[in-house]
């Protein structure tokens, strides 16, 4: 059974789609998929479905949703033993339910493995392998996590964590690309990223570096001025010290801004001028 939650929910077994249409059934399936082979307590499922004010009938209603999910699974599994296989797959445990699947069956865990491999390669200074592994991790995303699921408080926390991990992978992929001298290739993506994350100083540092190394010093400095104005007007804050020092380095044409040689210290762009 394969689960895709990094984008629209897609579940299939033996090539047969298994995606319920009912909103709460989709919530349950997604939440169980995030704990493959592990018990998800009834209290957690109840919180996801109804928040802090569940109805008195919550336990019975949850059991009804589980029964409906098992019927959907049984139909997809097929054969006379379909219902029994569905009960084994979506099992009842002590105080909760679990899906008997492996982490390898869920795209979120494949993303985490590829991301970890990419981060490790970057930390070792292996920029090309890092770039390849981080790109593979991002290729698993088909849209925002749980994009077509009406998420409750539990899934929202998971979604926020996954999106933060996705952003960190994106940033590190850009860092590897800059170390590999791909500043011109990165400019278009960085312009879009800074538009989508208008207060992310790490992305602005990368975009500034890409512009600077592409021979567009004025564009790099203009990016800094725009970010500084936004931070002051909206938050009453100056840019981070690292970004201020990067700005000063560009004004003084610091030679450390040149493309680093392969095998150099694998420092993220934002931290090049850390104290």
Biggest beta-sheet profile: 3 strands, antiparallel
Low-confidence stretches: none
The number of helical segments is 11
Rg (CA only)? 23 Å
End-to-end CA span: 50 Å
Share of helix, binned: 55-70%
Count every beta strand, where a strand is a DSSP E run of 2 or more residues: 6
| Overall spatial form | elongated
Summarize the SSE layout with pairings:
Elements: E1 2-4, E2 10-13, E3 16-17, H1 23-33, E4 40-41, H2 42-50, H3 58-77, H4 82-89, E5 90-93, E6 96-99, H5 107-123, H6 127-139, H7 153-179, H8 183-196, H9 201-213, H10 217-235, H11 241-251
Helix pairs in contact: 1-3, 3-4, 5-6, 5-7, 6-7, 7-9, 8-9, 9-10, 10-11
Fold and architecture overview:
This protein has 275 residues and is mainly alpha-helical. 59% of the residues lie in helices and 7% in strands. It has a three-stranded antiparallel beta sheet, with no helix packed on it. It has a three-stranded antiparallel beta sheet with strand order 4-6-5. The longest helix has 27 residues, at 153-179. The model has no long low-confidence stretch (mean pLDDT 93).
């Amino acid at each position: 059974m394969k689960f895709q939650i990094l984008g629209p929910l897609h579940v299939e077994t033996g090539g047969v789609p298994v995606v319920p249409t009912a909103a709460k059934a989709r919530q349950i399936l997604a939440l169980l998929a995030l704990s493959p082979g592990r018990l998800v307590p009834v209290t957690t499922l109840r919180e996801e479905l109804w928040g802090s004010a569940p109805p008195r009938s919550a336990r019975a209603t949850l059991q009804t949703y589980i029964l409906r999910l098992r019927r959907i699974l049984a139909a997809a599994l097929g054969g006379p033993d379909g219902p029994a296989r569905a009960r084994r797959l979506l099992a009842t445990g002590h105080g909760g339910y679990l899906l008997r699947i492996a982490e390898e069956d869920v795209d979120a865990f494949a993303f985490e493995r590829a991301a970890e491999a990419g981060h490790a390669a970057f930390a070792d200074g292996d920029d090309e392998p890092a770039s390849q592994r981080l790109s593979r991790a991002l290729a698993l995303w088909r849209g925002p996590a749980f994009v077509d699921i009406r998420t409750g408080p539990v899934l929202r926390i998971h979604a926020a964590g996954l999106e933060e991990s996705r952003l960190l992978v994106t940033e590190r992929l850009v860092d590897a690309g800059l170390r590999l001298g791909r500043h011109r290739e990165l400019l278009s993506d960085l312009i879009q990223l800074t538009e989508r994350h208008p207060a992310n100083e790490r992305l602005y540092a990368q975009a500034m570096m890409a512009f600077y190394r592409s021979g567009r010093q004025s564009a790099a400095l203009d990016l800094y001025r725009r970010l500084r104005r936004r931070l002051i007007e909206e938050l009453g804050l100056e840019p981070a010290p690292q970004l201020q020092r990067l700005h000063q380095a560009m004004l003084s044409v610091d030679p450390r801004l040149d493309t680093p040689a392969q095998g150099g210290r694998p420092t993220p762009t934002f931290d090049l001028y850390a104290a």
